[in-house]
Amino acid sequence: MRTSARQVRFPSFPAILALLAAALAGCVGTPPRELPRSSQEAIPDDRSRALEIVRLADSLRGVPYRYGGATPAGFDCSGLVFYTYHESGLRVPRTARAQFEAASRVDIRDLRPGDLVFFELDGRHVDHVGIYAGKGRFIHAPRTGRNVEDGFLQNDYYADRFAGAGRIWPAPPGARAP
What we know:
alpha+beta, endopeptidase fold (from Nostoc punctiforme), six-stranded antiparallel β-sheet, 6 helices, 31% helix
């Protein structure tokens, strides 16, 4: 059996240098432009957005209840959620029941500020919502004749009517309510 050896030819040293120089030329150039300041700012993470929602809701305490209201002139419970979330750049449905259906379920032990707490005040279906603020406190627009105020999950009235809790957006891993 006859074997033939093929002769491999390598390019000359000057040819290799020319190729290497051409390749490196692509790596050198003007440094990238610095981005404008607004482009460098970090997009708020979920925790800061949640705290923004709670701060805004806190600032609205004292605003009168108004059936169908979703402005600082007056709020119903879901209008308060709708307004505060919208002002923080999040879209949520308008009614308490639709907000309940849109939210991802959260165990009561895993509540974080900015989560929503839902109630069945009529005993049949979700008809009330509040914004969880931490330590069992939530902010809500309770009913005609009252103003936006704090409620407490430990209060027997709300504990007996608690329907569940939900989150409209994912929160960062490991973040917990204060």
